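ingest -> validate -> predict -> emit
validate: passed (alphabet ok, no gaps, 259 aa)
predict: started
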Amino acid sequence: MNHHHRVDSSLGVGGGEPTFRFAFVRTDHRYLPKRSFYLESRKDGTCKLIGSWDGIICIGVRRNSPPYRAGVVVVNPVSMAYAVVCNPIPDGGEFIAGYAHPDTFTVHLMYCCYKQGKPIFQIIKVGDLHWREIAAERLAAVTDTLSEIGFDKQGINSIVPHGKLHWQLRTSSAQWVVLVFDMVTEEFRSMAAPQCATTLVRGFAVLTGRLWSLVIPESKSLEMWVLEDYHDHEQQSWQVFRVIDMTATTHVIDIAKYF
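emit:
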C-alpha cells in the first residue's frame, strides 16, 4: 500500500481488538493464501480470503450469531491497520480488483455482478458507506466485448502497468482480450491479447516496465509475449520474446535469466 495512505482503524468490527484481524494473522503465517480458503475465526462466524491487490488484503467476514454482521475487512499487512466496508449488492458477483487511487492514494475495491444478463461494475472507497455503480457511458467503448465475457466463469487477476488496471480475459468465442480501466476517469477500453486456441495456462505480468502475457499451450512450452508499443493504440502488437521448453527440465526455471 502506498505509504501516503492510512486506513482508518476506527472503522473496525465491533469493540475491543478486532477478532478478524487475528484471523488474518493466523492465515498469513500458517497457510498459503487461497481464494477459496475459509477460516473459522470464532464460533459464530467465518472468514474468506477474497484477494490481495496493491499491497492490501481483503477478507470477507460473515457472523452468524446476533447481532448479525457481514462485510469486507481491508487490511494493511505491514502496519496491521484495517477498515471494514459493507458487502456489495446483489450478492453472487466477483471482487475483481483493489487499488490505491493514483491521485488521492485512497484504497478502492471493484466488484462485478450481473443484472438482467449484463455486467455491472461497482466501486467503493474505503471509508464510504455505500458502493456506487460505474456509469453506463464509461463502458460504451467495451459494450460488445463485455457481452462476451463471463466474469463469473474464469479466474480474475488484475495488474497495474501505466497507472491503469488490466485484466486478460477469455471471451465466449474462445478469443482473448485485455480489458483496461482508467482509475482516474473510470473509463474502460479494450486491447488485443496474444491468441492461442489451445492455451492450458495463461498468466499476465508487468516485467521490466512492460506488459507481458505468459502462455502455456498444449505443447507444454512457455511462450513469453511482450507488448512493446503500449501507448500507440493504433499500431500496438504483441511479439514473442522467448519460448521456453517446459519438458526439458524437472528443475525450477528462473525466468529472470531470460531477460
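Residues 1-133 form one domain.
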